[in-house]
Each structure stands twice: as structure tokens, then as C-alpha cells.
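Q: What does the assembly look like in three dimensions?
Context provided by user:
Components: two
Sequences:
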Amino acid sequence: MTAGGADRIEVRIARVLTGGAVVSVVLLGVGVALMVASGIDPGATTFPTFDPGRLVGDLVALRPEGFLYAGIIVVVATPIARVLGELVGFSLRGERAMAAVAVAILVVIGLSVVVVAVVEG
Amino acid sequence: MGIGLLLVAGGAVAGLFGSLLGLGGGILIVPLLTLGFGRPLREAVAVSLVCVIATSSAAAGAYLRSRLANLRLGMVLVLFTTIGALVGGIVAFLLPERVLTALFAILLGYVAFTMIRRRDPADADGPAVLADGSQPARATTRLERATSALAGPDYVVRRLVPASVASLGAGVLSALLGVGGGAINVPTMHLIMGTSLRVAAATSNLMIGVTAVASAIIYFLRGAVDPYIAGPTVVGVFVGASIGSRISGRVDVRILRALFVLVLVWTAIQMARRAVGL
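A: Here is the predicted structure of the complete assembly.
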């Protein structure tokens, strides 16, 4: 392992994290602006449940919930993308132990989806 | 309409204070949403987790570029914090809200106490002095030699077993109360594993985003994340934290910290009253 190689992984992961944070805040910012413009009162208004099938339609129609849900999804997806980046980076460098740690983290995160599926029936 | 802008402003104050005082936003956002905006605790925890992930992603990118955070050490401990967060995310929906509120009041009291005794990470650059007098960068036990592939060039993963148990606890705490878990992560790395306080703080920041994801997914898929509350709060926290990181060198944090301890104590009392139904 060279220090330069390790640095490349860290710089790429830093880009993923910063990029994800910026994209998510932009999406949420647009959603908040649309929400304010639409006169939606948070707390007083029943929020729409998340429906993946409606997301694109809501974005195209400039509905606030589309941008807000898209922003939240990017927030949650950013650390997952980071772990995927670590998996790819360490695998390419032949660091099997670190790649295995990344896989294990992804499995645990995946289990959270399974848990909800089981609980919700 | 006004509530949305108030949430942005409240989130910005929480992000600003959190950034200036080196706290995760969660310790401030949950009381803000429950006591300030009358939201149910579980919903506040869900929104707080989204805020924690967003601010962690932004800050962790900078810490990685500056080479302050230890990516490998963070990954090893994240494996345990995510397992804890998975368990905490399940338990959070089983516990009565009063119990969670009481736990949050205790956490606020603990954070207020640690802030009084706190050392500034900037004052502690060097590696910790380990109880056995050994060098943090040198493997001495069989387990440390076995886990040498999990460390960077200048660090050996020390005392993995107690650190993993503490990390599991940090994950459970994060999922139950919507905080990052830094209150456990930083002492674990500094006092148990022998990293410097600055590296521990930076690496903890790197860890909390992934940790919070495991439980945030559970809250999100179970419909506990209100986008109309989460959106303005996350935007506010992000803006406040960005301002805080720019002005942190020009602010006398000692006075701010003393005032903040009073706020934490007052908030702890209010949460405790709520927990017992007063």
C-alpha cells in the first residue's frame, strides 16, 4: 500500500460526501422554497407518505414533497455511496480485510430494510 | 408558512451552536422540535437523524481532505455502531415515548457535565498515553497483530474488544435519541484506543453519518420522517453549521460554552418534566 494510493481513496470519498451534501441541500432548499410558496404549514398539514412511483412525477410537476423526499433520499444515500466507494477502492488495492469490513457494513445497512419489511409485513 | 421559516431559523441556530461547540446537531434539534414546535419525540428523532447525516457528510469530506480523520479506524468502528443502530432503530418503536424522553433528559445532563470538564481538541494534538505505556502505532498483542490489516500506516487498532462494545452502545444511543454518538465515540478512540483527541473527534464525525443511516432507514420506511419538518430543519442546520465553521476561530467559545451549559440544564429539566407528565 502506498500513501498516495490511500490518499486517492480518501480524496474520492471526500468528493462523494461533499457532493452528496451539496446536492441534497439544494434539493431540500428548492423543496422548502416551493413549500413556502404553496403556503404549506409544517405540522398543521398532513404530510404525504413516500411513494417511489410518484417521485419523478412530483419533481416534474414542481411539487414540494417531490424535492423534499428526493433531498432526504440523497442525504441517506450519500453515506451508503461512500461505503460502496470504500469497497471498490480497497478491493482495487487488494486490501481484502478493509473490503470485507465495507461489505459487512453494507449488509448491516441492508438488514435495516429487511427489518422494516418483516415488521410491516 | 411562517412555521417553515421558523424551522429554518431554529435549525440554523442549532447548527451554528453545534458547530461552534463541537457538538452534533441532534442534542439540540430533538429538544427544538419537541419543546419548541410540539412534535412527537419519535418524529423529532427521525428528523434529527437526517440532520446528523447531512452535517456529518459535509464535515467528514473536509476532515478526510485534511487527513485528520482515520478512514480505516472509522470503518472498523462503524461496523459496530451500525449494528447498534440497527438494534436501537428496532427498540425505538417498542419503547414508550416517556422512556425515550427520560433517556434524552439524562443525555442532556451528561453532555452539560462533560462540557464543563471539556478539553478543546485543538489543545490535544499528541497521541494518548496508554495505560501500559506502549506506543499506539506498534502492535503488541496477538489480536493487534491479527488486526494490523485494519489500520493505517501510522496507527494500530488497539483494544478492539472494549472499543467494539462501546461502539455498539454509541449506535444504540444514536438510533434511540437521534444523536450522532460522538459523546461515546470520541472517548472510546481517545481513552481506549489511544488516538489523539483531534483525530478521535474527526474520525467520530466520519462515523456518525453511516451509523445514523442504519436507523434513519428504519424511521423513514416506517413513515416517521415528515418531509415538511425535515426539509426546513436540515437546510437551517446546514447553513448554521457552515457559518459556524467559518467564524469558529473568531468566537470566544468559553463564554458560549458556559451559556450553553445553562441552556442544556434548562432543557434537561423540561424534558424530565415531560417524561414524568408534568
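Follow-up: Residues 121-135 of chain B have pLDDT under 50 and may be disordered.
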